[in-house]
């Protein structure tokens, strides 16, 4: 479920940046002449992941909460289309993209 919704995709990228930044910092111990370079590069990776986590938090507070028709859980939607965080069902708020029974009833 790591890549289920847009919010989770951003969070996964930030988590990868944290581990990559720590790994880059660790490389400085293997090559002592460039230790400060690797430390600064790793610090930039960790700092950028903190910025992404902050940005995702702001996006998460502004996202629309809907109930998933498949699993019945409350999930958040970013943009026109998104996936359920739990069951990966495609969700939309735009009737032009909607499929299924709800769209057929409106027509």
From TrEMBL:
The chain crosses the membrane at residues 12-31, 37-56. It comes from the Bacteria. InterPro entries: UPF0295. Pfam families: DUF2614. Keywords: Cell membrane, Membrane, Transmembrane, Transmembrane helix. This is Zinc-ribbon containing domain-containing protein. It comes from Melghirimyces thermohalophilus.
